[in-house]
Design goal:
The protein contains 13 helices and four strands. The protein is an all-alpha fold and 326 residues long. It has one domain (52-317). The chain has a two-stranded antiparallel ribbon with strand order 1-4. Strands 2-3 form a two-stranded antiparallel ribbon.
């Protein structure tokens, strides 16, 4: 009986262990610093996590479909630089800069989707290569210079990153609305079921008549749309951007998606749980700062979280937290 109970606890921790750890973390930091659960601090954390969250929503589709996307950080930098540069171009302005930036970003996403989906190239290799290629493209576009909006008071562009509606920050509203739409797309539509099928067993999905290549292609298209949205929020919030503004974010995005329960092997995960994963990372980083730790400690914690999440993912598949057989 004791062994059976121990196995039951192990299975529960394998599935929900990160949430248990998050609750303990929240309680611990709240006792350490009461400011942690202050409503202004909570809203601030959600607002600052919106950019990461929007990107994670798109990568959720890619991961559930059985692939990876390590190019999202560089692609976000490209999106922010392009929209700011076109904003300052008299021939474009904000009305044309935004749709043109979305079109260019999604064209790159379509290229990645074509290489992975139709040419069947390894997604890790393709997106890792695109990470460098897009960074080079960003530097070429900007001439190695950072981008800024000269007359910030004369444009409405800041509404996407700085505005509020009904007392709620616009980035939070964008994150919430996009999450709701994509959650419905993934859970309630034939396309969503095809994404799960392709990620779960691509060969079986193909023999079932599901167009695997097309499904994978559209997962990358969705991911690039989300990255473009994140780039818009980033550029609007700071009214400027460095060429490396998104550097390293691909690891944080992947950590949030895996924390939310999406399997690296594909075929499982939800948009809602990805949102939870994003909030876990956001509150952990905020708690570390309130505790007086330096910001670079976040990188070490993020690494630990990724390792923990992957371990829990594997444990879920085998039904045990550890195995005596290597």
């Amino acid at each position: 009986m004791a062994e059976k109970n121990l196995d039951a606890v192990g299975r529960f921790l394998a599935r929900q262990g990160i949430l248990v750890a998050f609750v303990l973390f929240m309680v611990g930091f709240s006792l350490w610093n009461p400011r942690f659960i202050d409503i202004d601090n909570v809203f601030g954390v959600i607002r600052s996590s919106a950019i990461l969250g929007v990107m994670a929503l798109g990568v959720t589709f890619v991961v559930i479909g059985g692939n990876l996307d390590l190019s999202v950080g560089s692609l976000m930098s490209f999106s922010a630089i392009v929209v700011l540069d076109l904003h300052e171009n008299p021939a474009f302005g904000p009305f044309l800069a935004i749709p043109v930036m979305f079109a260019m970003t999604m064209a790159i996403g379509a290229l990645i989707g074509f290489l992975v989906g139709y040419l069947r190239l390894n997604s890790l290799i393709v997106t890792l290569g695109m990470l460098s290629a897009i960074h080079g493209l960003t530097l070429t576009w900007s001439g190695g210079q950072n981008m800024d909006i000269a007359n910030q008071d004369a444009t409405w562009f800041g509404v996407f990153g700085r505005g509020t509606a009904l007392g709620i920050p616009i980035p939070v509203l964008i994150f919430g609305l996009l999450a709701a739409v994509l959650a419905i797309l993934l859970a309630k539509t034939p396309f969503g079921r095809k994404v799960y099928a392709v990620g779960g067993n691509g060969t079986a999905a193909t023999f079932s008549g599901i167009p695997r290549a097309r499904v994978v292609f559209f997962t990358y298209l969705i991911s690039s749309f989300c990255v473009a949205t994140a780039g818009l929020i980033q550029a609007s919030r700071t009214m400027g951007a460095q060429n490396t503004v998104g550097q390293g974010m691909e690891l944080e995005v992947l950590a949030a998606v895996i924390l939310g329960g999406a399997s690296l092997l594909g075929g499982s995960g939800t948009v809602f749980k990805t949102v939870i994963g994003v909030l876990i990372l956001g509150f952990i980083q905020n708690g570390l700062l309130l505790a007086g730790l330096q910001f670079y400690v976040q990188f070490v914690v993020t690494w630990v979280i990724i390792i923990l999440a992957v371990w829990l993912d594997i444990a879920t598949k085998r039904g045990k937290l550890w195995s005596a057989i290597a």
